Amino acid sequence: MLFWFIGTSVASVWSVFRDPKFAYRWVIVGALIPVFSVVTVVGFLVAVMLLTIGENVSKKAFRKNFLALTIGLFMHLVFDGAFLSTKMFWWPLAGLSLDGYAIPLVERGFLNIPFEIVGVGLILWTKKQIKPIL
Q1: Integer CA distances (angstroms), 23 to 43, 56, 101, 102, 103, in order
Q2: Burial class (CB in 10 A: 0-12, 13-18, 19+), 40
Q3: Residues 66 and 47 sit within 8 Å (Cβ to Cβ)
Q4: Which of 1, 49, 81, 121 has its CA 20 to 30 A from that of 100?
Q5: What is the distance between the alpha carbons of residues 61 and 54, in angstroms, rounded to a whole number?
Q6: In this structure, what are the phi and psi dihedrals at residue 2, rounded to the nearest 5 degrees?
Q7: Which long-range contacts (CB under 8 A, 24 or more apart) does 126-133 make?
């Protein structure tokens, strides 16, 4: 799925921040990366925060973009329903084995089509809200 993750993520972030200068492109990139563990995303967030300590201008730009990427990663977790599998969502804290884990995208099959249609609708709606960005 492509449009589902783009549409839901950008519409959600727009609904919260309402900032036309937010790095929405980085949210899109993060939303398209298939990460299924909240531990992985939190680890990425911690790394971004530690690498951007200080008042350096280039660090601020890096932080702004990579925090938006991290938000996109979190959005992917939410809109993929990753929290439905406790074992995968909390990996590796819930154990290292991933045997028997079903990938939501594959499991839904043709049910992905309505999700994609909703995603396109959200992209079109968001595009009207954030004209200069998308």
Answers
A1: 21, 19, 33, 32, 29
A2: middle
A3: no
A4: 1
A5: 12
A6: -125, -60
A7: 126/7, 126/10, 126/11, 126/14, 129/14, 130/10, 130/14, 130/20, 130/24, 132/20, 133/20, 133/22, 133/24, 133/25
C-alpha closest to that of 27 among 82, 79, 86, 92: 79
Helices marked H in the chain: 3-17, 24-31, 38-51, 57-80, 86-89, 104-108, 112-129
- Give per-residue pLDDT as tens, 65-115: 999 999 999 999 999 888 877 777 887 787 776 666 666 666 677 888 999
Residue 72 CA to residue 67 CA, distance in Å, equals: 9
Look up residue 87 and give its amino acid: K
